[in-house]
Design a protein that fits this description.
276 residues; alpha+beta; Deoxyribonuclease I, Chain A; 7-stranded mixed β-sheet; 6-stranded mixed β-sheet; globular
Length: 276
């Protein structure tokens, strides 16, 4: 297997947004449970089941507002992903568990959690997908800050993370457009590719801004990249089909037999959970 189908989606905790006024009228849904969440998550699961690796942002790892449902686990089970992982970035105890999530059909190797610079609550999680030659493809899920100063520091940090992974994907809600100086500086520094101002994702009901990105290392080849018209959140999902360099392939299950699934490394003291 040399190609992989990726999807990145800010699912807004399963809240369906149709217009700006929904931020006011639906604000209570960010705090309290509502049956609409599982309906939307089930529809999202129908979309993501066609992909190999999916990164989701603004998911809840199980709290009052999600009716104690771990939304990453729910998506994994509904879409038949054998491997899933969540990174809790803002732990509000029983009231909210703000998280990034990873779902994969390929068995990951080590997973590293990163606490991003700035105010607490922003993180990145990087999973290593083993290759047949002993290397790996790093897949990072990110959700960056709203403020440009904090976001610049976070992008600088991610540029350092990229140095540890010759083959790397960074995908998620970057909260900035392609013309962001900080984002473009990070892309120049790392040599990553994938910026495309035509792939607008926000707001989902009338997309005008490219806030969601999938960036990849230069040795990787972008076969196709799209925005999917699937407006269940306030963001639209981004997809990409990616090819490994010539002669490199993902490890087959037989090559990984006997290896532990997902040993976790943490670059910070935030909690982590690993599931199969």
């Amino acid at each position: 297997m040399q190609q992989i189908k990726l999807l990145s989606y800010n699912v807004q905790g399963g809240i369906y947004s149709r217009k700006y006024s929904d931020y006011v009228t639906n604000s209570w849904k960010h705090l309290l449970p509502h049956p609409e969440r599982l309906v939307n998550l089930t529809r999202i699961a129908q979309l993501i089941q066609q992909f190999d690796v999916v990164g989701v942002q603004e998911v809840d790892a199980g709290s009052l507002r999600s009716a104690n449902v771990d939304q990453i686990q729910y998506l994994a089970r509904q879409a038949a992903f054998p491997y899933w992982y969540h990174q809790v970035n803002r732990d509000l105890g029983p009231f909210a568990q703000h998280s990034n999530g990873l779902l994969s059909r390929l068995r990951p190797g080590p997973v590293t959690e990163h606490k991003l610079p700035g105010l607490p609550g922003r993180g990145a999680v990087v999973a290593e997908l083993p290759l047949a030659d002993g290397g790996h493809l790093g897949v990072g899920i990110v959700h960056l800050a709203l403020g440009w100063r904090a976001r610049k520091r976070q992008l600088d940090y991610l540029a350092e993370v990229a140095q540890a992974h010759p083959l790397l994907v960074l995908m998620g809600d970057f909260n900035c457009d392609c013309d962001s100086r900080s984002l473009r500086a990070m892309v120049r520094r790392t040599g990553m590719q994938g910026l495309n101002r035509e792939l607008k994702t926000f707001p989902s009901w009338r997309p005008r801004r490219t806030l969601d990105h999938i960036l990849v290392s230069a040795p990787l080849r972008i076969v196709s990249a799209h925005v999917i018209d699937y407006p269940l959140s306030d963001h639209l999902p981004r997809s990409m089909t990616l090819a490994l360099p010539v002669g490199r392939h993902f490890a087959e299950p037989a090559q990984l037999r006997g290896q532990a699934f997902n040993p976790v490394r943490k670059s910070d003291a935030s909690p982590s959970r690993t599931r199969r």
